[in-house]
Amino acid sequence: MKTFHLTISSVAETKFDGDAFSVLVPGVEGEMEILAEHEPMISTLKAGTITIKTQADKDGEKFVIKKGILEVANNRVVVIV
Amino acid sequence: MAGLKEIKNKIKSVQKTRKVTRAMEAVSAVKMRKSQERARGARTYARSALRILGQVSHIVEFAKHPLVAQNTTGTTVTILVTSDKGLAGSLNSAVIKLAEKFIANKDESKGGVKWICIGRRGLDWAERRGYEVIHSVSNVSDDVEEVEMQDITDMIIKMQEQSKVRKVNVIYTNFKSTFEQEAVLRRILPLSHGALNDIVSGILPERGKWSAGGNEDETRVADYKVEPNRNSLLEEVLPRLTNILVFHTLLENKASEHSARMVAMKNATDKAGEVSMLLKRKFNKARQAAITAEIGEITSGLEAMK
């Protein structure tokens, strides 16, 4: 399965930095799941849960966020919360 | 000949001072480690924010946004970031010196300068000089959260949107290393990629564990899909980035403050040790002189009795 590089960072710490094959985020207009090779996108996120699925963790690692900004480009996803 | 007792008292007082500065050094060392870690740890966050701003700035609507617009009227607002307490070497005086230079520069301070003071030292200075302080915060804890800066950010954003300010600058101490801090002046508003880049690159040391390790490729992807739409994205992202900027200067300042204080206290401790050693030498000399004088008296007394 194809993966992409995902970084989730907050002021205090980098919450996630590594390869994932899917990330589920609470977009302002509903949840969206981002897979590898997603088209370039910038979006704001609302309060909710981010679920990350990686090779090692198929069930998904979860983070609760209050708000955030998401950027997808060149098979790399950056989320700041 | 100085009295032995006086010298003894002086030695005692110097040693007490040394104990105090030593304790302060130890406290600062712990705080320094924490605040440095914090300032550096926020790096990924700041870089990500910068990247996103970089991409957003290619959106057409970016240039029209009020936070990016160059106002030609109004005053200049300057955020002065200092520490609350002194005994931190030249940390605050360097910032204040820069502020004075800034006021003296008529081009920069056109339209009058208003101040927002973070930290008591800067506030005291501004009030003593009778400058206009529109907002001040003091006793900011070391574990300051991003939201605590929201008041200031909201304020400058409002002023910028109402064209009341030409520029919002910030003067703070940039943390380079434990032994090196530098007072700097940076522009926050109007927002630009360059200004943000300056602040963020300032946070990275030139080498070592935390250094940038080469710039990431800045591939421009022109056609971003934007959700929900471009205007509301800018509405959300730009104020947020402004807040990150303000917050970052504070983190930098905290790291600098504790480092400067630790170094200052270390110097004071060393100096107190030196002074106490010199005093001890003086004490011993005085004691020896007293003994010699006494012996002299006794022997001359003996001679006289013969």
SSE order and pairing:
The complex is a heterodimer of chains A (81) and B (306).
Chain A: E1 4-9, E2 14-20, E3 22-27, E4 30-35, E5 41-45, E6 48-53, E7 61-65, E8 68-73, E9 76-80
Parallel strand pairs in A: 1-9
Antiparallel strand pairs in A: 1-2, 3-4, 3-6, 5-8, 6-7, 8-9
Chain B: H1 4-41, H2 43-56, E1 75-81, H3 91-104, E2 113-118, H4 120-129, E3 132-137, H5 150-161, E4 165-177, E5 180-189, H6 193-202, E6 225-227, H7 230-305
Parallel strand pairs in B: 1-2, 1-4, 2-3
Antiparallel strand pairs in B: 4-5
Helix pairs in contact in B: 1-7, 2-6, 2-7, 5-7
Structure report:
The complex is a heterodimer of chains A (81) and B (306). Helices cover 0% and strands 64% of the residues of chain A. Chain A is built from no helices and 9 strands. Chain A has strands at residues 4-9, 14-20, 22-27, 30-35, 41-45, 48-53, 61-65, 68-73, 76-80. In chain A, the strands form 2 sheets. A 5-stranded mixed sheet of chain A has the order 2-1-9-8-5, with no helix packed on it. Chain A has a 4-stranded antiparallel sheet with strand order 4-3-6-7, with no helix packed on it. In chain A, strand 1 (4-9) and strand 2 form a beta hairpin. With 306 residues, chain B is an alpha/beta fold. Chain B folds into 2 domains: 4-26 and 269-305; 39-211 and 222-260, Pyruvate Kinase, Chain: A, domain 1, CATH 3.40.1380.10. Chain B is built from 7 helices and 6 strands, in the order ααβαβαβαββαβα. Chain B has a 5-stranded mixed sheet with strand order 3-2-1-4-5, sandwiched between helices. The longest helix of chain B is centred in the last third of the chain and has 76 residues, at 230-305. Chain B is elongated, with a radius of gyration of 28 Å. The two termini of chain B are 31 Å apart. The model of chain B is unreliable at 205-217 (pLDDT under 50). At the A-B interface, strand 5, strand 8 and strand 9 of A face helix 2, strand 6 and helix 7 of B.
